[in-house]
């Protein structure tokens, strides 16, 4: 719990000037992220916290219905008509002037475009990009950001921060053994 509080404070201090409403919404979003993440290792220090995780938390709970303009601006797609999990990750990276999956794939709007992105790792750390299967076609999938893990009834789950999870940006649990690939951003 101590690590959670330190991380929340570090993220909040990095947010710059915000209005009271933005500050309250960010506080609620950070609480939700760390309440659901249940990270098995200690959180990184403020100086080593991945910038795309900090940026992603600013969009927590943004939904297709009530925040479609903001999400469209970030992702570059109509989130009500497009599967947008990959566009969300690419949008975050683009805002940070980092290459996204378009640097390795002709189909950057597909989750599996991240299968060749960055460096493949076996043990995830906060901020790693994780690709999962979804649907019944070989090209379909889901992609999000690893923020922790939980064991429930002896089964390990990854806590994934991502877009297009129940039509919003949220933290959801995915079975760890279903991960197709875990990718770390190039330094």
The major β-sheet equals:
6 strands, antiparallel
Q: Roughly what percent helix?
A: 25-40%
Beginning-to-end CA distance, first to last residue: 29 Å
Query: How large, in whole angstroms, is the Cα Rg?
Result: 16 Å
Characterise the protein shown here:
This protein is α+β, with helices and mostly antiparallel strands and 187 residues long. The chain has one domain. Helix content is 30%, strand content 22%. The chain has helices spanning 2-13, 20-37, 51-57, 68-75, 85-95; strands at residues 119-121, 129-132, 142-152, 155-165, 168-175, 181-184. A 6-stranded antiparallel beta sheet has the order 1-6-2-3-4-5. Residues 1-20 have low confidence and may be disordered.
Task: Give me a quick take on this structure.
With 187 residues, the chain is α+β, with helices and mostly antiparallel strands. It has 5 helices and 6 strands; from the N terminus they run H-H-H-H-H-E-E-E-E-E-E. It is globular, with a radius of gyration of 16 Å.
Keywords:
single chain; 187 residues; alpha+beta; six-stranded antiparallel β-sheet; 22% strand; disordered N terminus
List the helices and strands and how they pair.
Blueprint lengths: L1 H12 L6 H18 L13 H7 L10 H8 L9 H11 L23 E3 L7 E4 L9 E11 L2 E11 L2 E8 L5 E4 L3
Antiparallel strand pairs: 1-6, 2-3, 2-6, 3-4, 4-5
Helix pairs in contact: 1-2
């Amino acid at each position: 719990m101590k690590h959670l509080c330190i991380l929340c404070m570090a993220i909040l201090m990095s947010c710059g000037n915000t209005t009271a409403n933005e500050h309250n919404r960010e506080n609620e979003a950070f609480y939700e992220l760390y309440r659901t993440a249940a990270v098995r290792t200690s959180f990184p220090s403020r100086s080593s916290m991945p910038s795309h995780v900090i940026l992603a938390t600013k969009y927590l709970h943004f939904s297709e219905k009530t925040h479609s303009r903001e999400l469209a601006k970030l992702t570059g797609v109509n989130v009500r008509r497009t599967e947008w999990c990959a566009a969300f990750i690419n949008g975050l990276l683009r805002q940070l002037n980092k290459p996204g999956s378009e640097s390795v794939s002709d189909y950057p709007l597909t989750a599996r475009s991240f299968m060749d992105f960055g460096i493949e790792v076996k043990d995830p750390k906060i901020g790693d990009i994780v690709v999962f299967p979804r649907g019944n076609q070989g090209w379909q999938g889901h992609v999000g950001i690893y923020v922790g893990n939980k064991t429930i009834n002896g089964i390990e789950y990854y806590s994934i921060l991502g877009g297009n999870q129940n039509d919003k940006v949220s933290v959801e649990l995915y079975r760890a053994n279903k991960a197709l690939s875990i990718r770390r951003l190039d330094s």
